[in-house]
Amino acid sequence: MVVIMSNYGTRTFVAITDASKKEAELVSYADLYDSFAFTSKLSGTQQISFNLTYKPGFERVFNLAQSKALVLYNGETYVIEQVEPVANEQGLIKNKVTASHHLIDALRNLRYDTDPESQNTTGGTTATNSDDKKEGVTVKRTGETQKFKLKDQLDVYFQNSKNVKYELHGNFPERACPVSDGTVLEWLNNNLSKYGGRYIMQGDTLHIYTDDALIKKLDMDFRYLYNVSQSQIQADVNDLVNVRKVYAGKMEETITTGGSDGEVGDGPTEPVNGDWGPVIRYAAQLMDVPIDDNGINLVKAQIKRESGGNEQIVQGIWDVNMANGNPAQGLLQFIPQTFNYYAVEGHKNIKSGFDQLLASFNIPNFLGQISGRSGWSPHGAPRSKTIIKPPAPKSTWGWPFRGMNGAPTSWENGQQFGHTGWVRPGSGGSDFHDGFDFGSAHYSGDILCVHGGTVTSVGYQAGFMVVTVKSSDGLTTVYQEFGNSVSVRVGQSVKTGDVIGRLTTTHLHLGITTKDFATAFAHSFDEGGGWLDPIKTIQSNGGGAKGQSVPIKKSRAQEYIEHAKTYLSPEPQVYKWGGEVKDGAHPTDCSGLWLSLALHFGIRLKDGARSTYQIIKQMRPIKRSEVQTGDAGFVPDLSHVVCALDNKTLIQESSYSEPCNTRSIDGYYKPLNWYRYDPLANVLGGEGSSDDSGGGTTTTTRTYYQIKFDWQDDESIKLYGRHVGAPLKLDDVYDEKEARDETAKQTQSKPVVSLDLDVISTKLLNKPVVSLGDKVHAVIPEHNINTDVTVVEVTGNDPYFNPDAKLKLTFNNANDALKDINVALRKDISAVRNNINDVNNWIGSNMTLSSTNRAWLEKQKTVSAESQTNNDRKEVNNG
């Protein structure tokens, strides 16, 4: 153990030497008697100070005391950091010397700095094509961080040290504390507490302890008026927190749709509100032809010229085709022989516009053979006899237990989905059940996946094990209350019939929701969670509670993009200065377009802002690289605003001569100033993609927390009242029990208490030497203290230099060492929160008030009493 002062009554000295240590001079005991002071603190200062008087016999030591000279005291070496003159009435020359333990200087010279050149990338560059992304849902843990051993991290700093070393005492856990640029002292001050460690400097060694290794019981009592002359308790309640929200287990979910290498989903085969654009896009996807907005508009122009969009029309103008009995027909006016040549299997109805589009995209370079302004003559060998990229088969569903040939035929009331008539415990009076309970009386063994997807969470929620699976159709399946036998992990892809876990309790609760699990879980006892009837959904192979198919869930950002494009199709909306701000495509101006698109999501600016100059005042500037869906771009003079569809494309109403249009954000006359309106950005939740090409992908990414709960310390609330703190984020904790334990560790739910004792040095003669980390017994009747406490700091003069000097020992409530002191204080802290009379009682019994303060308090009591009397009179009169 590290001694913090000399043995009481044992001869000691202070000497000063230069860095070479070839000569040393003793400091006068007269100076040390009057001025010597030392401070020794756990994981902190180890410092001494004293005055030097320039007088006969001590001139040499006075002159040696310069900055960076060395001071020898009690077997330790200190480095002088400061020398400053001291005024005195005798006219003597005096300097005050302050020195810190030499290890502090040494530790400041142990650095780790990243080599900037080592971060440069060497070799070639690999391009990443967004079209290579696969469709589906990818879920991964983003909060997980590598954990390191304390020894390994310290070795990085100490590896080249020759003169100083460290020693570890105790067993330290691994923690996510990477090495960082800077000194080892900076790293220790930022990270050592996370390992549960404290350090003390001794000689050339930095000793690092766990509390178990550091704290030792010392057979010594400190009693008031025996060896303690004064005591003081300081309680800090400013940072006390006993209620807070906790978010744990940071996750990232990426949904990718429309990839060229992925499967094609269902799409429209008939025009949507008269618009053939969606059908053109779907046909191009099926025939594996990349197409963008320009390509779609080209095909639409050709359709308009050939048939006006009428898929049943037959040629009415006499020509050679009619003369031969082969009139052109349908959407793109194929003659029957040509259509049959290019038509694909299963789609040979010439009067079907969808079938004609499939045949058209089966023609080599179809888009290059049409102009949209004149007739066309198909040529070239067919690309395929069948659809090149057939639609993906619909997701299959299954039952959660082997041997089930259909829906359950019997159950206890309350196990079924919906309003059951049985009020559920803890529901606040609700009889709504958000799933179906498969009881162990009828089912047992492995729990099977009922709908394929990606495992998005595995962990405890509200005391139950929960596994969630997110499918590409946007549905989330929830398996819970089945026990703790789990066979899957987060991020794993599972298909129908795979084993999720094993039933080891009374039942499996199966839920299916259209919303994200966090939202749905918050509505476990009402319909607001998007819950579907699991039995009907499985029976209908994915139908909803009413047997209707569940639409694929789109991101709000993608919804913004698709809604914005209604201003372009079927006809672009014309520019109208001062046009209305309303939902739905309509003629308007540049600011009206941004406001109308925001209004579609229920977002309105304050104070009726309408012009570009008014809009920008309610936004905040962002960098060009940060631009995402819904942001606003302004030209330099603020006379024009555009709307960002994504980071590459904008949409705008620009002028009378140019109707609503899209263009590259970085193209001609690009906006130079980008701004964001946070309420809209929060609703959209990120960025979508305006790329409509058949070969492109749409990727939506969101981050969320797997575990959410409200934490509170009931005992602390009872003692000190409610103190609500900021939310705590535990990104790398994916288990609820661990998250609750970590929250308790990181939350100061009791006052930070320190106890200072002024110790009479002469009473310590022939007693054991007190060291940092020693546990001693304190008996202070005036504070109702009779408990063991641990020494964390000692200050004062050395008893050998001044036997009458007082030492100050400081203790705190780390590891509940001062639990009894907290109990003694809690009544005082609680009393502060009560009314003026309680405050008066508290003050009256604990301290002496000045006459001025006493008069003020009496006045407040009088005012309070008069107010209460008036209230009583009002109640009587009202009665």
UniProtKB/TrEMBL annotation:
Pfam families, sorted: NLPC_P60 (PF00877), Peptidase_M23 (PF01551), Prophage_tail (PF06605), Prophage_tailD1 (PF18994)
Name the record gives this protein: NlpC/P60 domain-containing protein
Residues covered by region (Disordered): 110-137
Keywords: Hydrolase, Protease, Thiol protease
Entry-linked InterPro entries: Cell_wall_metabolism_enzyme (IPR050570), Dup_hybrid_motif (IPR011055), Lysozyme-like_dom_sf (IPR023346), M23ase_b-sheet_dom (IPR016047), NLP_P60_dom (IPR000064), Papain-like_cys_pep_sf (IPR038765), Prophage_tail_N (IPR044051), Tail_dom (IPR010572)
Protein's GO biological process: proteolysis
SUPFAM superfamilies: Cysteine proteinases, Duplicated hybrid motif, Lysozyme-like
Superkingdom as given in the UniProt entry: Bacteria
CDD domains: M23_peptidase
GO molecular function, one term: metalloendopeptidase activity
Homology family: Belongs to the peptidase C40 family.
Protein transport is among the record's keywords: no
Biased composition, class Polar residues, residue ranges: 117-129
NlpC/P60 domain location: 554-680
